[in-house]
Specification:
The protein contains 6 helices and 4 strands, in the order ααβααβαβαβ. By secondary structure, the chain is of the alpha+beta class. Strands 1-2-4-3 form a 4-stranded antiparallel beta sheet, with helices on both faces.
Amino acid sequence: MINELIKNRRSIFPSSYDPSRPIDRELLEQLVENANWAPTHRLTEPWRFQVFHTPESRQELGQYLANYYKNHTPPALFAPSQYDKALESPVKAGAVIAIILQRDMDARVPEFEEIAAVAMAVQNMWLTCTEMGLGCYWSTPKSALEATEWLNLEEGQRCLGLFYIGWHNAPDLPGKRGDIEKKTLWR
């Protein structure tokens, strides 16, 4: 079962989400609970999450993302469609989770290990979404990566992106991976 779950995991984007179908808080609690069980060196548990679940909080997030785009894009490069996408994508989602790294204040492990632990926590959420039939994807726009002040992050924290989640109508698509034998050296 786990093999099929891993192979069926896909990035499913907000354009395929059904905004009329809310996501129950209990499902979101299960996602972050499963994330909490990711491997972590020295038990630093470096993952933190901010869950934008209510329509109002997702609208606020969309407004932040759109304003960031507007304020950081030269007029000659500004595209109204990109502004609209930044504004509307969080609203189309049933929830958006800000993925936050909490660096071990004693730096007992290298930062890359803590980033890897956060990525494994996100993979746990991704696989849980796949099992539940939810679409999701991890977005890393500069607006999110630079959202420290907007998210009121504490010392040692930084945002690693946004995890969009929604019930969807995307078709089942086959996976695309190259041959593992070309990526493996047996010794």
